[in-house]
Structure to design on (309 residues):
């Protein structure tokens, strides 16, 4: 009887490799190089999201090596469970255990948190534009100039808070170095975020371009805010004000939508597209048309905002 030598497929070899990696980690007492993991995250995530991922990864990493303890996640709220799952997903990729992690998810029937269409509709309904404007003007009146200028910039660009702070820092820094033209298209008065991919282009949240007026740009260069997300929150808390910074981004999108600007344009400005799709839209005539429509939509709000400075 002839005995044939087994020819392992690459898939089988990969599975054995993963199991070997798993067993080695178990044998070493889960000796994870957390500093290397943080550096790994720095290449794929914005700096603001890394602390959360690290926190939950270091707190729940053992689930990757003791799958029977995954049931502990069932006691968490859906929102927190999703954060933990996201952290473990990143850690499992770093450790080469992603297939094992997917098996744990499937075995326990865990589901990623998905947006609820009804909740989204209710959010839009409850997101009263007049109420947000009232909050904005109250904040402009009570906050110091650096914070007021920052939330003005958020309101008039529609950027996420972290993106807006990064953009302001870049504008002031490059201006001091007489290099502002590297960031701003002077013809369109367009901030070219895509030229700084390490700051503005990440896996899940991107921003490519923003249109600004000379008045808004001059305000930033005059005040030179140097704040981050936490600084803004702190300024608001000290004045016992609600933190509605994220609503300013919604206000911007609402203004554009009410002005009849195509949803494709809004998605570009708010970074809800991929880099490849952005490139299809990147030519001057279309960008000029987009700028004209955007500035027409936001100028009334900008005029009201600038009265506070």
């Amino acid at each position: 009887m002839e005995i044939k030598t087994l020819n392992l497929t690459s898939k089988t070899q990969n599975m054995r490799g993963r199991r070997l990696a798993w067993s080695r980690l178990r044998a070493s007492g889960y000796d994870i190089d957390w500093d290397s993991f943080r550096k790994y995250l720095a290449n794929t995530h914005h700096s603001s999201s890394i602390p959360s991922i690290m926190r939950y990864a270091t707190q729940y990493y053992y689930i990757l090596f003791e799958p029977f303890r995954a049931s502990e996640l069932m006691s968490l709220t859906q929102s927190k469970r999703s954060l933990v799952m996201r952290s473990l997903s990143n850690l499992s990729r770093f450790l080469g255990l992603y297939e094992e992690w997917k098996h744990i998810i499937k075995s326990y029937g865990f589901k990623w948190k998905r947006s609820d269409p009804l909740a989204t509709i209710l959010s839009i309904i409850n997101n009263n534009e007049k109420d947000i404007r009232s909050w904005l003007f109250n904040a402009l009146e009570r906050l110091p100039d650096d914070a007021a200028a920052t939330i003005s910039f958020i309101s008039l660009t529609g950027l996420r808070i972290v993106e807006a702070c990064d953009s302001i820092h870049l504008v002031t820094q490059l201006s001091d170095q007489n290099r502002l033209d590297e960031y701003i298209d002077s013809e369109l008065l367009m901030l070219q975020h895509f030229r700084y991919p390490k700051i503005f282009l990440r896996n899940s949240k991107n921003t490519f371009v923003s249109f600004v007026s000379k008045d808004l740009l001059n305000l930033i260069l005059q005040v030179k805010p140097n704040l981050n997300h936490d600084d803004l929150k702190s300024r608001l808390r000290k004045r016992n004000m609600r933190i509605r910074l994220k609503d300013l981004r919604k206000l911007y999108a609402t203004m554009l939508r009410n002005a009849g600007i195509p949803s494709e344009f809004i998605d570009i400005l708010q970074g809800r597209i991929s880099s490849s799709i952005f490139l299809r839209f990147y030519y001057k005539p279309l960008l000029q048309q987009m700028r004209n429509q955007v500035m027409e939509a936001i100028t009334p709000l900008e005029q009201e905002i600038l009265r506070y400075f």
About this structure: Residues 1-28 have pLDDT under 50 and may be disordered. The longest helix spans residues 284-306. The first strand starts at residue 184 and ends at 185.
